[in-house]
Amino acid sequence: MSIDTAKGVLGDATIAELEAGLRGRVVRPDDAGYDQARAVWNGAHDRHPALIVRCAGTADVIRAVEFARSQDLLVAVRGGAHSIAGFSTCDDGIVIDLSPMKGAIVDPEGRRVVAQAGLTWGDLDHETQAFGLAVTGGLVSTTGVSGFTLGGGVGWLLRRHGLASDNLTAAEVVTADGRVVRADRQEHSELFWALRGGGGNFGVVTSLEYRLHPVGPQVLAGLIVYPREQARQVITGWRELTEGMPDDLTTVVNLTTAPPLPFLPQEVHGTRVVVLLGMYAGDPAAGEAAVGPLRTLGTPIADLLGPMPYTGMQSMLDPLWTAGAHNYFTSAFIEPTDAALDAVLRQHLTTPTPSSELHLHQLGGAFARVPAEATAFSQRDPGMLCNVVARSPEATDFDAYVAWARAAREEIAHHGHGATYVNFTGDAAQDKVRASYPGAVHERLVRVKDTYDPTNFFRLNQNIRPSAAA
After folding, report:
1. To the nearest 10°, the Cα dihedral for 247, 248, 253, 257?
2. How high is the pLDDT of residue 4?
């Protein structure tokens, strides 16, 4: 259905009736703010929805779901709009935009927060850090809390407190038939299991309740930059250190190209470098002993690892990940053998743009102690997660950059068990879904899908097809 066809089928009166039942508003293609409202973080996805419903609360979401179902419209759900695969928007359908829903209620004594689904991690950290509390959040603070959590949620507190989804204690969900359910360990427990890693397959999550932890306000965090010539010794030394690191310390290696930042010597700008990032979540004074060995893996070009606000670490990468660039991510869980690290290093030498890079995420700790069957995120082996990023400010040659990322991932994935991380997957192909949810996990997710969305009404996601659509 084209936009013109949708307008003809729906009619102004039909759309006006929808809008009359909302506290929020409808944005139409002819409205002045349409282009801004339809824009998403990933510039690779330039879509033109027939309608955008900017929801002010759960009642608006119910109304939008009922309307989309009655008009047989494709549905995209938008929170922070960071979906790498472009699930936050669509052509010709309806976008249920949750971004105006930014309420947060913090219970500092009970160490809980109820967060509406339109919040970004910067928004939520602002609220929880007022009480010295936090939950595992995104590495870029403009990321939305909902999609990040539903796909798992890898962040700087992963080894100390697990994934964001591991700290989810309840969720409010609008299902495909317009019902509102609360999913937790007692009510709709199978749905609650599926929401923790199963993505946006089962309904529109309108609020999330998290368990909070004492963190900050000061942490020991930052980055150390090493030259590419020392990459093998740095990455090998880092791997050896990870085997004995305390859970308070989470680290990431970024194989990238040095940007023209003032703390880097000018002669380094534009050259390939190894950036070691980390955060110690405990007492910064106690963390120096843990991070000290990271400073001696080679001869650093720059060492910016020191005390800083937790919110500073959460937003440190924001300037490098602004909206509008073309992005493609893919990923693989790997065992960090010599052969695996060699494959990663080889691909670093072939990155097609200065902003294309490879990340090695340290796992283990609290993340690995969650039983594989406890949540839909079942990849709990204490290996590493490799993220391959193709990024360009323009569309020119972007298909070639995507091809590079896919080929790099295939070589690196040979050193693991083939699984991908759904939040770091730019494809919606069924083979990638099955690799993310192997065996019995996928079968269980299908049963949940059959219960809550048997017609696959919510299909713009890493889709778990119901039995009827299989």
Report:
1. 170
2. 52
